[in-house]
Inverse folding.
């Protein structure tokens, strides 16, 4: 990459000095490099790489219009990357954040749903066994079965206030047990 950067920098310096052929060669040679960076950025953002061509065109226009802002004693590639980064951000903002991620690509990485409670839930249930019956029933209903306060109150024939009190006391009891003060 260093050799390419030096070659591109030389072509840019020549282009700034009026060598149209060197400048045209530079833009032609940069295009696949910029396209790869644009595609990579779009992919990381969860966007279609089909948008890369528009970004590359925006970058080439920016290079042309801002070429005098490049400092000839500095490497060209970091300057190019900065322009591309800003054009990529502009494109993502313009088109919104409606990215698409193909869930099938992650199917093997996503665990299958299980009817067994997670380890933390099992630990809470085990600890809750030593709580008074009402507190234990409320904690099981809300944290294992996933019921809300109203559903728990109906299922356990309690008022919603009593469910909240039992829940608060049960959680306080669990906290004491976890701190080892029981």
């Amino acid at each position: 990459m260093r050799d390419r950067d030096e070659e591109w920098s030389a072509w840019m310096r020549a282009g700034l000095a009026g060598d149209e052929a060197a400048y045209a060669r530079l833009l032609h040679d940069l295009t696949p490099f910029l396209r790869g960076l644009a595609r990579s950025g779009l992919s990381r953002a969860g966007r279609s790489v089909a948008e890369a061509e528009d970004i590359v065109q925006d970058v080439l226009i920016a290079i042309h219009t801002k070429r005098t802002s490049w400092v000839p004693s500095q490497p060209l590639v970091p300057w190019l990357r900065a322009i591309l980064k800003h054009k990529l951000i502009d494109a993502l903002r313009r088109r919104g954040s409606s990215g698409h991620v193909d869930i099938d690509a992650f199917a093997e990485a996503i665990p299958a749903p299980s009817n067994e409670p997670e380890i933390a839930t099992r630990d809470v249930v085990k600890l809750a066994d030593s709580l008074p019956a009402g507190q234990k029933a409320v904690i099981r209903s809300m944290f294992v079965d996933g019921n809300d306060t109203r559903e728990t109150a109906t299922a356990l024939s309690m008022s919603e206030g009593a469910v909240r009190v039992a829940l608060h006391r049960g959680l306080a009891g669990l906290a004491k047990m976890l701190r080892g003060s029981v």
Notes: Residues 20-44 form the longest helix (25 residues). The chain has a mean pLDDT of 83. The chain has eight helices and no strands.
